[in-house]
């Protein structure tokens, strides 16, 4: 039992492992915005309003934002004081021990890997719509996988390969391209708000909360809290900033700023956009694949709708880019600790990037996105992320108790009240998810435990030490 819960030493670890420290606080904030603003704002706002919360979807975003806020503050404290390879994995290793750290690592691999493949499918639809608009649309069999009646989802497969090549080039180049695409999608949102603010009909906000806070309709959870569990997907990815600890110039200062800054900015954007969207069009009409573009078409602004479609393509690209980046850094950290083979932690001397891991994960996600329908797997992303957030908040509580004198350049205010609130709020959002999602998550964790007991427990660096 002591082997299962052996812990890393607590204390800031700024060892160098070949990755390049080139990211500023602004780069990290833009990475967070790049990961957060995408599927959530362009798709889930409408779906959640139509099927879960009505116009009160703005409150769903507030609830989910608070839950993420507690987690972000916890991430910020641990990023400044524990460091290491960053992420919930590294923090859990110091707070709870090896087995819990491995479970969270396995959880994060699911979160980031499936997210990239699922978003690639959504990106493919928008990209092919754009090609069709200029007369270059792909045949249907090249936009669907074999399980959906086609041959391969070629755009989804191709975009993952392009991102793979970009990440191999270097993190500095990746950050620059991310910043450019973030600017495009923020401009897109600004256009939507500029048009939408002058076309709001307050009658569309009545009834404001048609399903109340929480209830079951036909066996399915609905209401503001159920909507919060759904729109939580809109926040998936801000924790990717914590995986950049080893490439941040001043991680103890810049990583907390990047985490909190990106989350606050995006929460405000989500609340404003969802409020305007449900004011333009009645919420019952918003259960469509691109509700923002649909709303603009509905009120006769086709040119603005076309610009939004371009913004969606840029937005989803940055989401995939940042989540893909985070996936590779998680695997490198786990491999370096001996829980995965050392092959995965090799950093290329020329590019200062983990080329092997980037290629292997890229090919895996390209195959998933090109050939496998990911609707069911995508539901796992939320529960995996929420589980990681619960453990990060709990990690703050544990380390406050076991290491009260640890140097904390950033410290959450209010004692342990806020991290306890984080555990409770993220735990509650897990409870509001469908039963089938819990079941699939348990199966994934069982597979991870098999790998741990067959390989990881014997090859751990802590075991060797």
Q: What features would you describe in this structure?
A:
It is a single chain. This protein is mainly α and 465 residues long. The protein contains 16 helices and 2 strands. The chain has helices spanning 25-36, 39-53, 57-81, 87-95, 98-133, 154-169, 171-196, 224-231, 251-280, 291-298, 302-336, 355-371, 375-402, 417-431, 435-459, 461-464; strands at 215-217, 220-222. It has a two-stranded antiparallel ribbon. A hairpin with a 2-residue loop joins β1 (215-217) and β2. α1 runs parallel beside α9. It is globular. The model has no long low-confidence stretch (mean pLDDT 80).
What's this model, at a glance?
This protein is mainly alpha-helical. Helices cover 66% and strands 1% of the residues.
Low-confidence stretches are none
Q: How much beta, percentage-wise?
A: under 5%
Tally of strands: 2
Number of helices: 16
Oligomeric status: single chain
Helical percent range?
Answer: 55-70%
User: Tell me, what's the shape?
Assistant: globular
Q: Over all CA atoms, what is the radius of gyration?
A: 21 Å
